[in-house]
Amino acid sequence: MSGDYKFDTLSLHAGHVPDERHGSRAVPIHQTTSYVFQNTEHAAALYNQELGGHLYTRISNPTVAVLEQRIAALEGGVAATATASGMAALATAVLVLCSQDDHIVSSSRMYGANINLLENTLPRFGITTSFVDPSDLAGIEKAIKPNTKMIFGEVIGNPGLDIMDVEAVAKIADKAGIPLMLDCTFNTPWLLKPFTLGANIIIHSLTKWIGGHGVAIGGAVVDGGNFDWGQNDKFPTIAGPHYAMDGINFYEEFGPAAFTAKFRAEGMYNFGPSLSPTNAFHILQGMETLPLRMQRHMDNTAKMLAFLSGHDQVAWVRHPSLADHPGHELAKRMMPRGAGSIIVFGLKGGRDAGRTFIESVELASHLANVGDAKTLVIHPASTTHSHISAEAMIEGGLSDDMIRLSVGLEDFDDIKADFEMAFRAAAKQQKARG
Amino acid sequence: MKHQLFDTSIHIATGGRPFANDGQALVLLHGSGQNHLTWVLQSRYFAYRGFPVLAPDFPGHGLSGGTPLDSIEAMAAWLIALLDSLEVKTACLVGHSQGCLVAIDAAARYPSRITRLGLIAGALAIPVNDQLLTMSDKALAKAISVMTSWGHGPMAHMHDNTQPGHSFLGYGNRLMASNNEMALRNDLMACNQYSAGQDAATKITQPVICILAGADRMTPLKHGIAMANSLVNSQKIILAGAGHMLPAERPAEVNHALRGFLAT
């Protein structure tokens, strides 16, 4: 070993070395709830975090650990914890960091469920959020209060595709002595590793590009290990005595991995958002080809942008790679390989034309997911974002005619032909309506 | 726990248990550019088995204040001063890498205070190449990255960790980056300049266990074996395939070996 392994190699290998007894080259599925202890002392040592190891699959599991170690390696973090979904990852991370009367500053332009959690659910538990346009750096700084415990946002907003200036927001968070937590589902570590720009905690929905096959739901929380939890008195349950394990001080005991230690001891232990070992196995199969798929996603996205931008039935197209996108230069700088494979667009004829288009495509699938190997389409206003208010829709930059397209890996000529056919159907209907 | 020594606040990890001072201690000494977190999987383990554990951050390291010391002899003297101020009469010293040099120097110069030694991934001399010395002064992040890479064995490079979800390299980098910016430079200079190890070894008659790494690229195995052979009352254990960061890479075997040694 002459140096650290590169991204493509880590995607295939990180977290797993074939065991000596069986030599299984593929990661085995440890489909078990529990693990036989060597003796009572060994059991106590595992519960007390004196040793690494597994005691109950709600807390950790060998197959899941391979996935966690692989995502930690790809992101350049100190550790990762996998969860049953991306939303489980976010909700648990917030609850591990925040307590009653705490406050969050968040991007206003995000996935509907992220907004719902912060806007409607967490206030019932005394955790409130101020929403700010992610491009409004002064507004983000101004929204921070003495009880603010984190800044949260999406690198590429869903579905508006707003781009957050990670480095600039990380500086604001650093100045305030609070962590920057980012949902990095849309960028994946292949496009951007936000820890290198100062982000502190990363949330993933592994269901999307990282899995890539649409067969398993999963999430992850990755710890950058680059936040000093002891720099102020804002995080007493990390840098002060915690009820678990004789009043453990996670900061002093585990240093850069303090957040992960608390996430495991409290988040996994008390909330139990565990990822099943079989789902971890499925997601690992996807991760093996992440670099290859992402390159193809970017190639097809570029072709699709050229196609849509030149089509006379398309009223508008939005993607950070297009020069008229407000985050174009920022996206180019942060993500030189591409700004993701989600495109949003509207058809001439508005919502009705869009509905006809979605109902007419045959190769593309109409469903509520993104990042699949297959091309997907959906109408956010009536589905993924239907639970958020009209005001929040406007604030989030979402229009009623918006179609969200997740560009897949098919031969582009076939996707193009499918879209041409659906565009013709939409045009025919518009004409019939006069 | 926090402790004042020479007007400096010193952080000492006690393994999550209050330090019950009965005049003896198991003292864990970290290596170059490291701190008490080297011993994450030893300090709690031994503290919860009744050992009075002290894993200090040397000045300028980890959560301790002050300026990093600049020689192995100064570190050994500082260690004895720390034991004095804590009213610890005798100690078993367990060192990792540079910590082995400190332990050897202290044991030779203060034989009545040091009852036995555990030397992990050590040698009697740890010369440092000029390129790394320069890097630690002019390009600290690069030096940390290089040392973290060299310091870990093949399984660690594959991120195969006994602690679920943890990355050896990610953690190693962040641990080193958390120290005073002079810490690594001073430590490497101190190692490079220390030439009294062989002489000190001849004076050590206390029981010693040497736990060595088969794939150690920082203190190669042959130097560890030479160290063990120079100590009259020593035993050695070699963990094949392990890298320099033995306490993290092979915690169960390190703890088992140390525990057996401490029980004799």
Spell out the blueprint of helices and strands:
The complex is a heterodimer of chains A (434) and B (264).
Chain A: H1 7-13, H2 40-47, H3 62-75, E1 79-83, H4 86-97, E2 103-107, H5 112-121, E3 128-132, H6 137-143, E4 148-154, H7 166-176, E5 180-183, H8 188-191, E6 201-205, E7 219-223, H9 236-239, H10 250-254, H11 258-271, H12 277-287, H13 290-309, E8 314-318, H14 328-334, E9 342-347, H15 350-360, E10 365-366, E11 376-378, H16 390-395, E12 403-406, H17 412-433
Parallel strand pairs in A: 2-3, 2-4, 4-5, 5-6, 10-11
Antiparallel strand pairs in A: 1-7, 6-7, 8-9, 9-12, 11-12
Helix pairs in contact in A: 1-3, 3-12, 4-11, 15-17
Chain B: E1 2-5, E2 8-13, E3 24-29, H1 40-47, E4 53-56, H2 72-85, E5 90-96, H3 98-109, E6 114-120, H4 130-138, H5 140-151, H6 154-157, H7 168-177, H8 183-193, H9 197-203, E7 208-213, H10 221-230, E8 234-239, H11 246-249, H12 251-263
Parallel strand pairs in B: 3-4, 3-5, 5-6, 6-7, 7-8
Antiparallel strand pairs in B: 1-2, 2-4
Helix pairs in contact in B: 1-12, 2-3, 3-9, 4-5, 4-8, 5-7
Provide a quick synopsis of the model:
The complex is a heterodimer of chains A (434) and B (264). Chain A is an alpha/beta fold and 434 residues long.
Write up what this structure looks like.
The complex is a heterodimer of chains A (434) and B (264). Chain A has helices at residues 7-13, 40-47, 62-75, 86-97, 112-121, 137-143, 166-176, 188-191, 236-239, 250-254, 258-271, 277-287, 290-309, 328-334, 350-360, 390-395, 412-433, and strands at 79-83, 103-107, 128-132, 148-154, 180-183, 201-205, 219-223, 314-318, 342-347, 365-366, 376-378, 403-406. By secondary structure, chain A is α/β, with parallel strands linked by helices. In chain A, the strands form 2 sheets. Chain A has a 7-stranded mixed sheet with strand order 1-7-6-5-4-2-3, sandwiched between helices. A 5-stranded mixed sheet of chain A has the order 8-9-12-11-10. In chain A, α7 links the parallel β4 and β5 (180-183). Chain B is of the alpha/beta class. Chain B has one domain (2-263): Alpha/Beta hydrolase fold, catalytic domain (Rossmann fold, 3-Layer(aba) Sandwich), CATH 3.40.50. Chain B contains 12 helices and 8 strands. The radius of gyration of chain B is 17 Å and the shape is globular. The chains are: A alpha/beta (434), B alpha/beta (264). Chain A binds chain B through residues 1, 3-5, 10, 13-17, 44-45, 48-54, 60-61, 64-65, 68-70, 72-73, 76-82, 224-226, 228, 230, 245-246, 248, 252-257, 260, 264, and chain B through 11, 13, 16-17, 35, 37, 40-41, 44-45, 48, 62-63, 149, 154-155, 157-167, 169-171, 174-175, 177-178, 251-252, 255.
